[in-house]
Amino acid sequence: MTTTPDVLRPHAEVQYAHELAALAALDREQGRDVPERWRLSPWAVVTYVLGATLPDGTVVTPKYVGRRRLVEMAVATLATDRALLLLGVPGTAKTWLSEHLAAAISGDSTLLVQGTAGTSEDHLRYGWNYARLLAEGPSEAALVPSPVYRAMQRGAVVRVEELTRLPSDVQDALVTVLSEKTLPVPELATEVQAVAGFNLIATANDRDRGVNDLSAALRRRFNTVVLPLPDDVEEEVAIVRRRVAEMGAALRLPAVGAADEEIRRVVTVFRELRAGLSLDGRTALKVPSGSLSTAEAISVVTHGLALAAHFGDGTLGAADVASGVVGAVVKDPAHDAVAWNEYLEVVVRDRPGWDAFYSACRES
Question: Which one in 45, 78, 172, 355 has a CA-CA gap of 20 to 30 Å to 30?
Fold first, then answer.
């Protein structure tokens, strides 16, 4: 798979092709066992996700910052015949991790079903080219395979994002696929049997509106790995700093000055409001309805960088992030505005060095 310089966001297997190639070469050199139709050994997949410097000097950049054991559990699950469910609140890098796991294992992260309220069984199983169906009747030529169908044929990893956003009856279309490793095609009196290497990664959260609980039958077909929010401020600041730098380069944003102070400020605000407690543990706070995730912090800072670069003095300041913070916090004007105003007056107003941020938020 190739890409062009104009692609806004290359697929993981394209963007990090040199890292994947170096890890594959190291697997061969060290004689590591590679499961059938996998591109890398399980050890190399974990190394690709968490980052390392290889013996040949290749620097493998970290794709996920978190507990190594969680990534090992995820990869070990995919090395068996059990499907993997990445569960966590919004913004815990579930989609990001699933993409990189698929890229490292199958060399293709594009076999994807995006779960929405409008996703039908056809998206999980197969559909039809209705012009050919009417002209010729049911046939293999008229069948339109889904990503799940193609992954079963090829022995690859398929991703199902936001599984709990699928209607319950659509979710259960996966039960036979995951238990029997078979996809019946009754219209053609045949079936598709998964070949070695096939597996499925699903992501889900239970915080957003419009969530449909998984049936007990479907949940039993998954090994679940819960991805937590970052453990401490420093870890979350490091994640935001790195992802903002990557996104800024991808979006070709002009270079701006040091942003660490404002990144730390945004992360602090989000962590305190998520927890309902100030960092010093002295002040209880109302919790807004939004998730205030690490992903939202990244979005706020990236937006602030664009403002600073194009309309400011080139240095990220409080005024550049204030409107983004307010927009992220106040999702429900009735409830969240009260929580936000209380936070500004009780915590932010008297915090040393936060005067400019307080004034900017009041003006937003």
Answer: 78
